[in-house]
């Protein structure tokens, strides 16, 4: 388990090493092609040092990598802007957001798919402004109004990934407690449930409810997120949130365990159609 930036550097380095090997080059030969010392290539590939987007571009050119989608993903992981010219918008919030949250947002913005189990609150990508405000205020004590406004602004800006082209594919399993916990008062919760119903009808969103009647399940250990990337599964990562930080699991056995756990949760949860009815019923009875 490592923190996000270290995992991202290591994954980027591992992918660059695989591409070099596929190109039939030694690290020394690659270094000579781009005019570096071999030690720099080694440090990049092991993730012990960061790498600039321009350096990644040099290596990809040297390795003859033509896959535009893969090139863009690796460039963004190195800190470049995306093909739409949108630089990392969250950089403007450096003084407000902790590094682990910024890294989570960077992964979220580039992932092709996100699977999440939520056991206490509505996923951030589906929260209304009022709900986001109430959750943030409860989670972080002593916030000034200005800082609270900023954090809610960031939460809402993250939701753009669902409207991007192509949009993030979101699969979410919600424990029934998420629907029953009254956050922000009856009015706020009623609007939030309406928002979930709207989101559940989007083609890029698969929403399932895990009712109390399902009993104990593998998700009782806590919520988690799995990010997947269309260009390469080697960059997939599991994120576990803690009170003061986030942990990133990247080993294949960890990814397999959480992927299997999520599949099991989907089986035990209501179908997307029945979940929509369940949410609507909860909203009607609120």
TrEMBL record:
Checking InterPro entries in the record gives: Cro/C1-type_HTH, DUF5753, Lambda_DNA-bd_dom_sf
Per the UniProt entry, the signal peptide is none
Give every HTH cro/C1-type domain span: 16-70
Give the superkingdom in one word.
Answer: Bacteria
Which Pfam families does the entry mention? DUF5753 (PF19054), HTH_31 (PF13560)
Q: What protein is this chain from?
A: Transcriptional regulator
Organism encoding this protein: Streptomyces lomondensis
